[in-house]
Amino acid sequence: MAPMTEVEGRRVALSNLDKVLYPAAGLTKGELLHYYATTARVLLPHLRDRPVSFLRYPDGPDGQLFFTKNVPPGTPDWVTTADVPRSEGPARMVLVQDLASLMWAANLVTEFHTHQWTADDPDEADRLVFDLDPGPPATVVQCCEVALWLRERLAADGIEAYAKTSGAKGLHLLAGVRGSSSERVSEYAKALAVEAEKALPALVVHRMTRSLRPGKVFVDWSQNAARKTTAAPYTVRARSVPAVSTPVTWDEVAGCGRAEQFVFRTGDLGPRVEDYGDLLAPLFDRRRAAKLP
């Protein structure tokens, strides 16, 4: 039986803590759980009230990976869940509302992915997202060039953008929005992606077609669709190294000259959070959320 740990008055089973999940880094499951416990104060606000999809990798990133959208079997009855709309009918998903729920979910060994809307108002998007995905030989360096263009373009419409690494090879841009459906946000994001391709034809592509992408940055606007999810800030990714989807400053974006500069591992996040706090915290200020033009 897995050892039980009390977290904020809840009994949470934490199993196989000595299991090495990331052989290249020697990171164990216990160390992964420690990371989530110590970054919970900045991570939890980005998960709270948002239905969470889990990309699970219980045997490490080299093992089987599988998505779990519905409430997993064996979920404790104290974990908050919510009905969410889907085209095939309502489904029930997990809401990670507190530290105990976070540690229960982290024990499943998962990436956390969230929608751009909250469970209490699924008809209104409160986030706009661009996933900037480089096609080799392009890297995150080129993503940063595109991000700077998009930042200025969004600002022209009164929208304030923030950046984070994807935790893989690209970059995510996020902005707070209000008063629009996911469909409307998707339309707006697509229009900007098309505009970016016209302004930067040697650098940007707005279509997913693989043959168009070598050496360019795919500006993926489609993750604004109501059914889509994006890797949450501060989640650890199921990659060969324990890289984290990490908020970055615009000075860092402007100064990125090597892809290695934008690889942040679990051990890097403690000092960054101490120095910067949560760089994405302005997203929670509804007064700063913009209406789309």
What is the string of SSEs from the N terminus onward?
EEEEHHEEEEHEEHEEHEEEEHHE
Shape: globular
Uncertain stretches of 5 or more adjacent residues: none
Amino- and carboxy-terminal Cα gap = 56 Å
Helical coverage, percent range: 25-40%
Biggest sheet character: 7 strands, mixed
Q: Which band does the percent of strand residues land in?
A: 15-25%
Describe the overall structure.
There is one protein chain. With 293 residues, this protein is α+β, with helices and mostly antiparallel strands. It is 26% helix and 25% strand. It contains 7 helices and 17 strands. Strands 10, 11, 12, 13, 14, 16 and 17 form a 7-stranded mixed β-sheet that branches. Strands 5, 6, 7, 8, 9 and 15 form a 6-stranded antiparallel β-sheet that branches. A two-stranded antiparallel sheet has the order 1-2. Helix 1 runs antiparallel to helix 3. The N and C termini lie far apart (56 Å). The model has no long low-confidence stretch (mean pLDDT 96).
Pick out its properties.
293 residues; 6-stranded antiparallel β-sheet
Describe what is shown at a glance.
The protein is an alpha+beta fold. Helix content is 26%, strand content 25%. The longest helix has 18 residues.
Topology readout:
Elements: E1 4-7, E2 10-13, E3 20-22, E4 27-28, H1 29-38, H2 40-47, E5 51-56, E6 66-68, E7 81-84, E8 91-95, H3 99-106, E9 110-114, E10 125-134, H4 140-156, E11 161-165, E12 171-180, H5 182-199, E13 204-205, E14 217-220, E15 230-231, E16 247-248, H6 250-254, H7 266-276, E17 290-291
Parallel strand pairs: 12-17, 13-14
Antiparallel strand pairs: 1-2, 3-4, 5-6, 5-8, 5-9, 7-8, 9-15, 10-12, 10-14, 11-12, 11-16
Helix pairs in contact: 1-3
